[in-house]
Amino acid sequence: MRDKDFSRMLNPALQRIGAYSVEGGQSAEIKLNQNESPFDLPEGLKDAILDEFKQESWNRYPDILPYRGIQAYAEFTGVSPESVMMSNGSNEMLYTIFIACLEKGSRIVLPEPSFSLYDKLAIMLQAERIIVPMHDDLGFDVPEIIRRAQEERAAFIVLSTPNNPTGKSLSIEDIRMIVHEVDAIVLVDEAYVEFSREDSALCLIDEAPNLIVLRTMSKALALAGMRIGFALTNPALLAEIAKPKIPFTSSRLAEITLQHVLANYHLVEESVSYILQERERIYEALKGISGLHVFESDANFIIIRVRNAQEVFSFLAGEGILVRNVSGYPLMQNCLRFNIGLRKENDLLLEKLRMM
Ligand SMILES: Cc1ncc(COP(=O)(O)O)c(C=O)c1O
């Protein structure tokens, strides 16, 4: 049994994907490689959350529909609770929505480069991927997205805006045009929306029955470890895409944490305002460093192009600074990505980049 070849018993699509990994790992003195917030929740807030969580019965299942978390996010965003679904991080919601929208042979339009999970899920579901390359400045090619979706009769379009890993956004006019001109479900992944110069697509969900907006609490809300994501769309579409959802994935701890963080949203606003100021300061500083090109970003991270990304990545890692080498993405040769950290971390990064 030990020597048996299991590969022929498994889904053949597994041969076309790899396991998720983070080059350089997940711990470093200065960790800037996963687009996290540099600020943890204050101790007092954590205590209040844990005190409330202690009152729960840990032997009981949480709610199938985590209505307390849903209610809190519905109130926060100003939509009805019937328009909101909560998940264990937005990655889990991506699985649910992809399963609901794709079958073998159905067509999905994916701008490239974009968040790697989209591609992976499309491959696993044996969908046909229609790839629309970004422009050389890494911006979206909106007319081509529409043209290819129409021409190929695509069922599904996934847009990350601001986009990971490029940091570029679509305007609300772009999104409005796309949702109205295509005959497809359009998923707009707004993982970084709080940092964007552009508005959220949420205001379009009443006028566009084919639009789903995806949110995560892992970035601006600084809750990556708590695993909270949301999908927002009209109630009819929500009821359909909720069908394949894994039940009970949102813990009561996640719901309680969300309620407390939304009730203290000034903390999020303060950290977003710090990150935006630092993003501009670092962008200007990087423009003054010869031998690298910096791309303007709408997210909590910045992309630079250097002469040799692997060399710079290794040099920084040796200095205790972990960034992401995103050179493997199309159009991003010799590019590195790093999120905004604490001021002293950012200063050290700039100092090291000046030495290269
Ligand atoms: C564009 C985008 N969508 C979704 C996610 C997943 O976030 P989470 O599962 O932590 O909610 C990420 C994480 O980096 C991302 O960059």
Report on the structure:
The protein is 36% helix and 15% strand. The protein has 2 domains: 27-41 and 266-355, Aspartate Aminotransferase, domain 1, CATH 3.90.1150; 43-263, Type I PLP-dependent aspartate aminotransferase-like (Major domain) (Aspartate Aminotransferase, domain 2, 3-Layer(aba) Sandwich), CATH 3.40.640. The radius of gyration is 21 Å and the shape is globular. The chain has 11 helices and 13 strands. β9 and β10 (301-305) form a beta hairpin. α1 (43-54) packs across α8. The termini are far apart. The strands form 3 sheets. The protein has a 7-stranded mixed β-sheet, with helices on both faces. Strands 9-10-13-12 form a 4-stranded antiparallel β-sheet, covered by helices on one side. Strands 1-11 form a two-stranded parallel ribbon. The protein has helices at residues 43-54, 67-77, 90-101, 116-124, 142-151, 172-181, 235-241, 252-263, 265-287, 309-318, 343-355; strands at residues 30-31, 84-87, 107-112, 128-133, 156-160, 185-189, 211-216, 229-232, 293-295, 301-305, 321-322, 324-325, 335-339. The protein is an alpha/beta fold and 356 residues long. The structure holds pyridoxal-5'-phosphate. Pyridoxal-5'-phosphate binds at residues 35, 89-91, 115, 160, 164, 189, 191, 216, 218, 224, 229.
